[in-house]
Task: structure prediction
Amino acid sequence: MGIPEVRPDPPTPLVRAGARLMGTAPARWFLRRVGWRIDRAVINMTDGRVSMSLVMPEVLLTHTGAKSGEQRSTPLTYFTDAGRVIVIASNYGGDRHPAWFHNVKANPRVTLSARGYRGAFVGEEVTGAERDRLFELAKQFVPNYADYEKRAGKRRIPVIAFTEVTESA
Result:
């Protein structure tokens, strides 16, 4: 079965409207401080079938803290490419990488859950021309990423690709 495939097609009018709303300063503040916690609970309660986003595909990333060793869960927008799950470490255009990114770099084996599917994956930062290609797809798919790129200033927003592994690997 696997994580449901999501093509990074240009946004629908509904997604574009949602992106405009989520691009406002109050929405970014809410999502960064409170929204992700609520979203994590909603995704967990519905086995990944519903998220606060409603219009964007979300995956629940369960990762191990780089320093604490504790399990943490973070809801992220995703798309798929060549059998991989692609996420963007945008941190809403903040000047620092999100904590989950550091955790995945330190402990790349993670669990991803989406729309009733849960599996083991290994994450890897994509670099070079492949990173640029995937980030362009991401900006086409979620218009806010272009704004986040500007807000991030000198910080180059990472792209992470997750590849599913068997439990025996």
User: Anything to note?
Assistant: The first helix runs from residue 13 to 22. The chain has a mean pLDDT of 86.
